[in-house]
Design brief:
Layout: H1 21-36, H2 38-51, H3 61-74, H4 76-87, H5 92-100, H6 102-123
Helix pairs in contact: 1-6, 3-6, 4-6
Length: 125
Amino acid sequence: MKSKKERPILPAEINENVVSAAEQFQNEVIRPIIKMQSDLLFAHLSQQLKSSKIKLDQLPDAKKEQSLTSLFEKNQAFKREVLGMIIGQFSMEEYSEYVKMQKELNRRIRQIVLNRVLEQWIWNV
């Protein structure tokens, strides 16, 4: 029942015009991991919503977006858990690079995951 996960390869165009080391790390390491962990992240979010008694299906879109954004901004335990799901997939070399830009990369991870959630559940992109 255990399936091996492999990081997806993202298109090379994603790294065109990359300006900073954080952006390059984001595109080469973080985005593929988030894509690979997508099902787990959504399952964990669903569980968090359930335990927080937030019923998204009963809210208008504006309230859904506000509730999800608030969860990602204010729930410290949830933020740490999401970061752990991503950081736990780093190799030792990637972790060494991550530590150098930790604060910036944590912000980027949370923002990417939040945007994926909003796209999937609200914006229907």
